[in-house]
Amino acid sequence: QSKVVFMSKFLIVEDSQVIQKILRHIAKQELDREVLFAASMVEAKTLYADHKHELIAGIIDIALPDAPNGELVDFLLEDHFPLIVLTGTDDGERRQSLLKKGAADYVLKESRYSYQYAVQMLHRLEKNSNVKILIVDDSRQIRQFVTYLLKLHRYQVFEAEDGVVALQILEKERDIRMVLTDYHMPNLNGFELVQQIRQRYEKTPIAVIGLSSQGDSHVSVQFIKNGANDFLPKPFEHEEFFCRVTNNIESLERMLSLKAQATKDYLTGLNNRRYFAEEGDTHLRRCQTDEIPICLAMIDIDLFKRINDGFGHLVGDQVLKQFAYYLDDCFGRFITARTGGEEFSILLSGLQPSQARSLLEEFRIMVEELEFEFGDGEYLRLTISIGMSAASGDSLDSLLQRADQHLYAAKDSGRNMLVSDSIMLS
Known about the structure:
By secondary structure, the protein is an alpha/beta fold. It is built from 15 helices and 18 strands.
């Protein structure tokens, strides 16, 4: 039986043809999802009913010809649909009311920037579903309130009643990207928690926002000095809270994007040598501490120079990209990188040496049987040589050195084979 796959979409409801035209143009530039447009409540309800399970979020005009008093906004909020209110009236009381009802944002029709901000917020709401945030506070009521706010913006939320529990959650959920922490807590206060996070996760991108009901500026200063990125006094306005959270998440994402550019191979999209050296060393030491078996493999495409010389470097690049695709498909769960021109390295953690050898040997045979396409329906075949070393208290450099020696031994013995610490396969 075939599985039904729903494609994610956005909904924009605006009755002004001029403004809708502007929104269509911005949405085409900013969003990579289909956008459904409506100009009335009746039309919007029909689209909503037909595409409810595909819709991520929407921008909804508060005053429509057949819903002049925000009836459509109320209808969608009652159904817990994430939406951004678009309005031409700056009504502070209504703004607060709609935000309390669960609107993700309230945007005035002031300029093109306003419409661009609203559309970008749609994209933000989509991305937030993959962002994990941890709220740490000894008050259950405050945790529930902050969790409610974060879920309005579609974040994944974890809760901890003190710093000790927070560290346990961080250890388990390694991809948490933000921690919101109170100052006054039993066992481990907010300052101490921030210190522990920065010490334990020095290389992990985590934004920290300190929270406190104290009016003393000393608290905000101490949070920042102890490693927090920002501070927010309680109680806080919904919009200020969301602005602080969003700004810190986006700063973190920009930093990660720059880091990715510095650690990704431009041609294949795999990690590069720098990434392999930095992350590989950290991962190796963690595996050794936890007594997890780990092996290192170096793979080289045999006689690759003949491809470049015989067919040109453009064909060589095509072959490398195809090979990288297969390598990532087979070993993507491990730390994998392009560490030289036609040389690739893999850290195989969690596998005994015999298991790692079997997996690498299967890959070698698979590559030998593959056809690599180039030009107009032309194909060529490759073979690879592999050197593998198993860790036993070694440094990453010593593992690389041994794997490199085994790789050269494989080439000297005729290529298209795997040589490891204790066995030769061909």
